[in-house]
Structure formats: C-alpha cells, structure tokens
Amino acid sequence: MVDVPKLNRADAVAALRNPLAFLADRWTPKPGTVQRAALIALVMSVVIVVTGGAVRLTSSGLGCPTWPECTDGSLTPTQALSYHSAIEFGNRMLTYVLCAAVGWAIITARAEKPYRRALTRLGWAQFWLVMGNAVLGGIVVLVGLNPYTVAAHFLLATALTTVAAVMWQRTREGDTEPRPLVGKAVVQLVWFLVVAAGLLVAAGTVVTGAGPHAGDSSDVKRIPIDWETVAKLHAVLAWIVVTLTFALWFILKAVDAPRGPLVRTRELFLILLSQGVIGYVQYFTHLPELLVGLHMLGSCLVWIGVLRVLLALRERPGTELEAPEPAAGAAVPTNV
C-alpha cells in the first residue's frame, strides 16, 4: 500500500489559490513525460486542422447553424438535423480533447524540476490560441462561412501548431543560450525558406477561399478571384520552397554541417515531394475531397518540417554541459 498524504486546511487553501504550484510542489514528472505531453499537444493541433477540413469537405460547415449552441435552444444536434450536424458537432467536441492535451502539457511543464518559465509560457500560449480560435470558429459559423474568416481560422490554427512544435523541441533541450551549428549565410537561407513556406501556406488559404469546396451546400460567399490562377501561384511558391530546400541540403553537405540540420532538411524535402504529388493529382482530378484532405494534412507537415529545420540550426545543451566557443563567423539564430 502507498501512503497518501493527508491534506490539511492550509493545503486545501493553497490548492485552490494556485493548483498548478500546489501540484508542482508534490510531483516531478520525468523528462520523457514532459516530452510526450508536448508531442501529444502538437499531434492534436494537426488533428484539429484535418478534422476541420473534413467538416468543410463534407459540406458540414453549417451543420450546427449557430454558436455556441448547435441549434437554437440545444447544445447538441437534434433529430431534426442531418449527419452534417454530427460531423460539425464532433469537430467542436474535439476542441475539448485539444484543450485537455494542451492542459496536460502545461501541467507537466509547470511541475518539471527545475522550473522552466519559458516552457510553461509556451504551453499557456497554446491555451490562449485554442481559446481564440474557438471564438473565431464560432464567428465563422455566425457569418455563414465567410471565406476570409475561414482563412483566418486556418492561419490561427497554424500559429498554434507553430507554438506546439517549438515547445516540443524545447522539452528536449536545456535552457542555456542557443549556440549555432552553421554559419550566418545558412541561417539567412533558412529564414528565406521560412518566409517562402509561410507565403505558401497563406496562398493555400486563398485557393481554399476561392475554390469549389465552400464548406456547405448552400450559396456560400467565395473570394472573388479565379481559383485556378491562385492555384498556379500556389504551385510556383511550392517550387520555390522545394528549390530552397534542395539548395540548403546541397550547401549543408558542402560545408560538412552536423547531422541534425542535414537529417531535418532531407525529411522536409521528402515531405515536400509527397505534398507536391498530391497537389498536382488533386488539381488535375478536379479536387476530390479525399486528396484535398490529405493535402491539408501535408500542409501541416510541411510547416512543421520547416520549423524543425530552423530549430535544428542551433542547440541548447543542458546547463551542466560546458558550451564550446561558437565557430568563427557563425551567427546565433533567433532565440526560440
């Protein structure tokens, strides 16, 4: 039998005032627990994007025609509603699963010893992004799936994925100042890659807003531009990202860079090739729903891959390790 400590009145008051601090004083998670919690939050940030895409691709965006209720006077779908309501309501319920994953990441980060304020802040940043996007999702419904709000909804979800990816990386690092693994020119090239990938994602939201999958069978407003023209611009940006990735891999090989940046760049290149194949096939087959959904998943993986390349350009050894002098001419990337 394990003895369970008794709680006195002072403990109960402390737990009510600051439950996270109270828990942290009595429990220390293993590093692997913190890392897995951060990874689960990252995975859920991708899952919520893919299921949101499924809502749109099945024309279920207005399956629950109001918010925060599903229909006037009912928080859940009624028998009078269709299967579209179940799909939309199911996606809303997944938000609670996402909240639980983010909450677990916050708890484990707060309880880790020594206390890492930056790591905990990354967890709370995810929480507020989830809350903000939940409200924005409600606005999307209330304005009848306006394409501009739908695009903003996706971009805010991408911001959540960004913070989740950074937190996952930070759980596997120390808190010392980052030291560079490559030179300044390589860092600049990778930042060009990050900007190009960001534009690629943004252009994808415009294609979505102008394309045929409006999210509901009713007459939903679309962005008033030719979606095929924007799709071609999207493809050009994709080729720019692929070219920059290939150039980066070639340069890293030429300068005999550490294994980490090389591996991450190779992984990104393979993700981009897969995403490119899906993109072209869906374009020439007139955007079948399944391929569009896979392309949305690929969009998340591409962005995570780009972030992992950026974060692989530096390392943060544990405080107990002595950090060597940086290489001549090397520059420290942005402190993330």
Describe this protein with a few key phrases:
336 residues, disordered C terminus, 10 helices, two-stranded antiparallel ribbon
Percent in strands: under 5%
Radius of gyration over all CA atoms, rounded: 23 Å
Overall geometry comes to flat
User: Which H/E pattern describes the elements?
Assistant: HHHHHHEHHHHE
Strand order of the largest sheet: 1-2
Through-space gap between termini: 45 Å
Major sheet attributes: 2 strands, antiparallel
Percent of residues in helices? 55-70%
Low-confidence runs of at least 5 consecutive residues: 319-336
Coarse structural class: mainly alpha
Task: Count helical runs.
Answer: 10
Number of strands: 2
The overall pLDDT, averaged over residues, is 87
Assembly level: single chain
Characterization of this structure:
The chain has 336 residues and is mainly alpha-helical. It contains ten helices and two strands; from the N terminus they run H-H-H-H-H-H-E-H-H-H-H-E. Strands 1-2 form a two-stranded antiparallel sheet. Helix 6 (147-170) packs across helix 10 (289-311). The protein is flat and about 55 Å long. The two termini are 45 Å apart.
Summarize the structure.
It is built from ten helices and two strands, in the order ααααααβααααβ.
Element layout with pairings:
Elements (H helix, E strand, L loop, with lengths): L8 H9 L1 H8 L4 H27 L25 H29 L5 H26 L4 H24 L8 E2 L3 H27 L16 H28 L4 H26 L4 H23 L2 E2 L21
Antiparallel strand pairs: 1-2
